[in-house]
Amino acid sequence: MLISSEFQSELDTFLVTILEDTGYRGVEVRPSTPNKTEVIISVIRPVLALGEKAKRLKELTSIIEKRWGFKKNELELYVCKFTEKKKKEEKEVAPVCEEWTFEEAPVEESWGDAPTEETKIESAWEIEETTIEGLLKREGDLEGHYDAVTCLVIHPTNPNTLISGSKDKSILIWEITKDSNNSINNAEVKQTCLGHYGQISDISISVNGDYIISGSLDASIKKWSIDSGRVVKNFSNDSEITSVSIDVNNEVIASGSRNGTIKLWDSSSGECLFTSGYKNSHSGAVSCLRFSPAPESKLLVSCSHDGTTKVWNLSSKSKLSFECNLINYFTKELNGLCISPDGSLLSQGGNQENFSVYDLTTKGFLYNWFEKEKINALCYSPIRYWLCYATEKFIKIFDLESKKIIAKVRPEEDELIGKKVDKLECLSLTFSNDSTLLFGAYNDGVIRVWSVDLNCPHIF
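User: That's the sequence. What structure does it adopt?
Assistant: Structure tokens below.
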């Protein structure tokens, strides 16, 4: 259908009356594809515009289709919240939740014996701090989100592209330019991805870098084109999505949910291929799951707020076999995990105020290090034998060979002035592909950036 300014004017007049109770403030009409039209409605009270289970929005879509002669699936309606101070639009859509049949995975024995309280205490070693002056230098800030930045991922083939997800329900694709000294010259938002109506909980990127997978607390997963910033596939779940990961072959997406289940999805069709059975699902929310990045590996690892870590094997595209529970020195919530670039090591941390390192090739426990604060997030350096992790106050780099903290940074105290948060916490972090930049996602909506001097003297 050909969209004209006359249609937008007539639609605006119509919506002024029918959406009077929502604080209607305007409408934008634009073609998304040659055969599909997007209508973005701006209101003060979006919950009223959506209605219970999006019933009102669906009814409004049907009315507009009939009144202006749209065919089925030619029209997509979105609701965004109008704010005078912040004019960023947030598309709000309601997920279509479907119930999937649970498949029972075989129950196998946990690897190793459960640690006693005595071994828990003895194996938690104190970390020696030998910080190297000048290793990390504050480069600047990336400001584009207006609420907590919850997740970060670097583009696998374009080192100048960073993707961030936020509590503000948006995903930003950043384009970063650096000078000859690897310092940032400029950083700007290349694409803004809108479509979720709940917090972005996690993002993953395909190995070829063509598309992004996002999981949200709106109980949906979306597949986005990197180039256009538009949704190319929607996946509907029956529980809030807390973590997502895509396998090395770009064929299967794994998702973890607040209800403790893990699912596999066909990345092309959006079909749910597998749901973890009751016996092997986590008893608490899945806080993080990751496929091994090793080319030939089929391993998936998940950790949970129930304090457990599970290892799974992608035995086929539609079957995830439970392998074992790792020996765990955690009795409190686990917040995150990361797998080394070669797939050999796993690290995890949480509210227990320590982190553990495992050998993934043998599923063996290596060591446990004591921290004085809870750990929010972890990541490995792509080229150095370093583990970087974020606590309540600091970002630290732990050298795995010397087993020492070699760098520790935190925002300045005056950066909290004028913020809506009581304290600044890093919620996610990632290195650039060459490890010359370290990005930290903070709860005040700012991505803080440090340069890493790989030629710094006295690096172990």
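DSSP finds four helices and 33 strands in the chain.
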